[in-house]
Amino acid sequence: MRIDILIMVALMLLPLVGTGGIAVYVYWILITGIYIAYVAYMTERWS
Amino acid sequence: MDVFLTALSLYIIAATLIAVYARKGVRSQEDFFIGGRNIGGIVSALTYAATTYSAFMMVGLVGFTYATGIGSAGFELMYLVGTLFLLSYYGPKIWKMSRERGFVTPSEIFTERYGLRVTKLIAIIALIALIPYTSAQMIGVALILERNIQISFQSGIMLTAFLVAIWALLGGLRGVAWTDAVQGSVILLTAILAVFWIFWWGFGAGVTSFMTNLENAEEILQFPNSFWTPLRFAGFVVPWFFFSLTNPQVFQRLFIPKDTSALRKMILLFAIFGFIYTVLTTFMGLELRALSENGSFPQIENRDSVTPVILTFMPEWLALLVSLSIIAAAVTTSNSIILTLSSMASRDLSKSRSVLAGEAAVVVMTVLAALFALKRADYIVVLSVLSSTILLCQLPIILGIFHGKKGKELTGILTLLCGSSIAITSIFGITPPYLPVSIWVFLASFTVYMVLSRIEG
Lengths: 47, 457
Fold this sequence. Notes:
The structure holds two protein chains of two kinds.
Chain A: H1 4-13, H2 22-42
Chain B: H1 2-22, H2 29-34, H3 41-52, H4 56-68, H5 71-101, H6 111-114, H7 116-148, H8 153-203, H9 207-216, H10 218-221, H11 230-241, H12 243-246, H13 248-251, H14 260-293, H15 306-311, H16 316-349, H17 355-375, H18 378-391, H19 395-402, H20 409-425, H21 437-456
Helix pairs in contact in B: 1-8, 3-8, 3-14, 3-16, 4-14, 5-11, 5-14, 7-8, 7-16, 7-17, 7-18, 7-20, 8-14, 8-16, 8-17, 9-14, 11-21, 16-17, 18-20, 20-21
């Protein structure tokens, strides 16, 4: 079982406890980008 | 008008030539519906993206972000994260199973475990959920054609239905995939051009000016806010998070890559496409909202009108490109859905294995979607919005295939009936209290599945 998705869901929902701002938008974009890079790294041995 | 008509004609001719070329080598339903399981990674990725991202992105999501703020980006990026996880975790398993057992339709994966009745029921639920969704896409295209080339709404629907069917009929999945690949690239490039043009037109080179104006619309930058309450956010996210497993038109795309390397390329390139496209469309919504705050762009009440209004401010060439990209997004999503539904109708419902039967099913499905679109009834839009919620009822039985051995035919049938009926009855205003309907479908389907699978064994 992979726990990366649980961590990602928690990170994506983290702004629910804050007050928002453009930083939340940038934060979501950044962590999604990092997750894409993580999946690319993790699936490297497929090919 | 003439320029639009010329561009539209060139687009149709180019895509038709591609589909004709793709026709070579279609000898079986496996070739027709899943490209002989021999599609390369880049084309697989672009067809996955063009199938997933409909006209909703450039019209719906731009307006949604304009009206409700950054929460729209959160919900759409949550979808992308969920899809990336599900594709990287279940994708290789589904791809391998489909090769070993010769699956062509998405619902064939259920036959061995849950029986033929469950397979047929899933095909019927997919028809109920996705025919109105396709009709809504056709209505969108017909409205653009009505405005740009002054043809009647009815003629617009006929032309759209023709476009949806012809590339699928000419080249099957390979035709759809190749035309999707070209159109997907155009859709992304157009979004990049539109975002940069709006920024240059509205703010010059001034990031400060953009931020100052945006901060005037305080609620837009807040999360949560009066629209994006935690419960509503969950209600939006849940059906979309599992979209890649519950929507047959994208599930079937997992059967097409030629090897694991192509499968990996499909997943990663799709993720990069989706990431860029989501950032662009949500940023466009924020740009337009900032412009409304400084008075350069009108305040718009109906959020679906935001993109059509900005088109009237754009130079003609860009407005034309954006309009064509919206048509392309709607057509690529529609013909992929029609092809998948046709595979389910001809193989799961009528047990026919000939290419001719597959082609006949494409015609029947397209005519059905066009007839619904011509009626233009309110319930079409309601059903199309609910499509992913209706399809969510399959989730427990899909996950059940990979996790555990309990649960057979009765479990499958009652899980599907319970979940889908909650979603469908909500159209008539019969909704369980307190929670969004998607959460109810999710909870009810899983509860029925867990209880019955333990009883049935």
